[in-house]
């Protein structure tokens, strides 16, 4: 079957492309786009087939999704976090597809838009408090500083929890991306105890699980809806049996959600400020929109749908710097992709980074252009043009929540502050499990929002 699939150049004996994937995978992803609809990556373990063609991606993720399991993600992450929605979930008598649908249906109400919108004041206040320690003229490590904000926002909106939970989340994030990535990139090596991040990662997961267990006890002792995700999961029920989830399952879910959620404010927002530093025209338009829509007052949930340019900017930053840049599937039966049949058990990968940089999907893909997301222009785009949160039945369940948190924090910060990377700063992102911004210094200056009389939606 694989005779028709070209192999990515540069494979090394024994480890194949493993070292490239650990060291500098982003150029490899762009190169794959130029080679073929499906490209073989060699590994120390089984070969992985990276799908780059947009129509094949759509088939794999949307129309033929029943033919695939999560594969490596489950192998790499489930033993550490416990099985949860992101991974392969099994219920007796149901196919993998049906089991996922049943589980997702029970969890979905926790992410209802009304619940998410109700978190805006909390996220705004946490951001305002966080920024109080900033001083004009100061240079910050933006990557570290915004990560601290992300831990606070995540701990409070997911578990109504305070500092100790945020501390556990910080420890997990610091130790995790390398350790988990090694397990996913090189599953066999990942089982060895000397793999970077392994010991501290396991301790950090245990610490966060203990903190979530403590939060469950507190919620049970005082059972009221705190507006957080945990309150909603405690009242979640399976539609067919009316059963609640076990506490262990809730801990699995919440631990993994928080692990994922941090990366919005912690990783996407630094990339936003990087792009604003590079594109003063975009910064000017952002400020103009915020001043027109907010007129100097703090952002509210009702403002978010009117921040059209801010949303486009965020979408474009996540196109160029997609946090979840590479994902995997495993075929459950023989599937045909293009002209090749792949037998059951084949490892398949897809990447938001590759798709977002594919010249057949995006015109001039390296160019930063928030207006490519204007409604009249998106209509012409391929269905897989936006894979930041995946697509199809396995699309991110937290996409709206993450977007709401990011927009709220971004609007609150940029109303009053400019954060510019110093001239000559060389951006070195770290693509591990998540695409992180790397070291990102930023000089802070203050700005005073213009107070306009009109509160009409901005036409930017
Ligand atoms: C900027 C932040 C985030 C990004 C970029 C992101 C990205 C993604 C992507 C690309 C997928 C698709 C996975 C696949 O195709 O295999 C996904 C799935 C998922 N995400 Fe997120 N995510 C983010 C935030 C969150 C948050 C806040 C949560 C909290 C609940 C979350 C929970 C999940 C879950 C549970 C899934 C699996 C959904 C399913 O299989 O039904 N993510 N995410």
TrEMBL record:
Keywords: Heme, Iron, Metal-binding, Monooxygenase, Oxidoreductase. GO terms for molecular function: heme binding; iron ion binding; monooxygenase activity; oxidoreductase activity, acting on paired donors, with incorporation or reduction of molecular oxygen. Its cofactor is heme. It comes from the Bacteria. PROSITE patterns: CYTOCHROME_P450. Heme binds at residue 396. Belongs to the cytochrome P450 family. This is Cytochrome P450. It comes from Streptomyces sviceus (strain ATCC 29083 / DSM 924 / JCM 4929 / NBRC 13980 / NCIMB 11184 / NRRL 5439 / UC 5370). The lineage of its organism: Bacteria, Bacillati, Actinomycetota, Actinomycetes, Kitasatosporales.
